[in-house]
Amino acid sequence: MWVGICDDYPPYVTPLMLACEKNSFPAVKILLHYGHRLHKPHLPDCTCPECEMMEDVSLIEAKTRYTEFKCLASPPYVILSTFDPLLYMFRLNSVLKAESKTEPEFYDEYTAIANHFCMQLLNQCRTKVEVMILLSRQVEFPMRTTPMPFNRVHQALELDLYTFVTNVNCQQVWGFPYFKIKIL
Questions:
Q1: CB neighbours of 177 closer than 8 A, spacing ≥ 6?
Q2: Global pTM value
């Protein structure tokens, strides 16, 4: 049976993108198992040969990039395709910040994407121990030689992710030891 073009979705939407938009963990897992991957979209100032051929960046291309970034930041894709979801989102956040500056019409959407998953992951922690494990995980710090007590908090501060740092779960764990030290 021949399947035609669906008018319900734009032509650039792949099955994996659709599964990510619908937050379907089983569908994303199956598609990843069979080798489907999402690729980072080209930024507007990209100078690769493919982008050089395009004359003008239209609103359709901007919307396509927004949809691709939204799928790259979807919880099923991030959790199932990365070894370290929080570090992946921190890195994607810096790309999204740059993208939001080049495409002001999607500034609010890119900012929401950047903060949404990190906050969701932090809110899923049920105990202080889980939050401490999440925040203490060792990450790459090119300028630091000594381990920090809460690496993820320091990295979030370096990336200006203040909503992550001000999360209630983060404050319960991170704020208490420093507050206790200051009192003594």
A1: 149
A2: 0.76
